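Our working data are protein records whose layout never changes between entries. Getting from the letters to the tokens is the skill we practise here. To make this concrete, we reproduce a full record directly below:
***
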Amino acid sequence: ALAASGDPGEATGHLQRALALDPDYAKAWRFLAQAREELGDRAGAAAAWREVLRQWPDSAQARARLQALGG
């Protein structure tokens, strides 16, 4: 929601805190990946997309984004 509001930097901070409490929160990983992409953090986005795939192996979105990032 914060990323959609136009502040991916703020969203990233909130998502990282949420993931520190619950590292298996797959939706938070997806939102973190998207926010990191918006910030131009390709390596961070790829790492988050890999975590999405670990938890949701059938995620076509995660596979496509990871491939687009070269990871």
In short: Helices lie at 8-21, 26-38, 42-55, 60-68.
